[in-house]
Amino acid sequence: MDNLSVMSISVDHRTDSAPRMQEILTQNGDLIVGRFGIHDPEEINHGLITLNLRSDMGRIQNMMDTLNGLEGIKVNHMQV
């Protein structure tokens, strides 16, 4: 059964990492129920994206592994 969960993505050096990160999120768009993104007003190259997800842990883990492979990207995940 697919459960709801929350993923946070910290993005450093947004201008370098953002295009590839966006491709990964688009490829996994069917997992994403909701998305909220903000940038740090003190640091222009830092952002935070929060995703609400509905999927099995295998697909979520695959997306996390791919995102974590990008420079400047840190991912956390929590099941609710």
Automatic annotation (TrEMBL):
The lineage of its organism: Bacteria, Bacillati, Bacillota, Clostridia, Peptostreptococcales. Pfam families: TM1266-like (PF21699). This is Iron-only hydrogenase system regulator. It comes from the Bacteria. InterPro entries: Acetolactate_synth/TF_NikR_C, ACT-like_dom_sf, FeFe-hyd_TM1266. Signal peptide: none annotated. It comes from Marinisporobacter balticus.
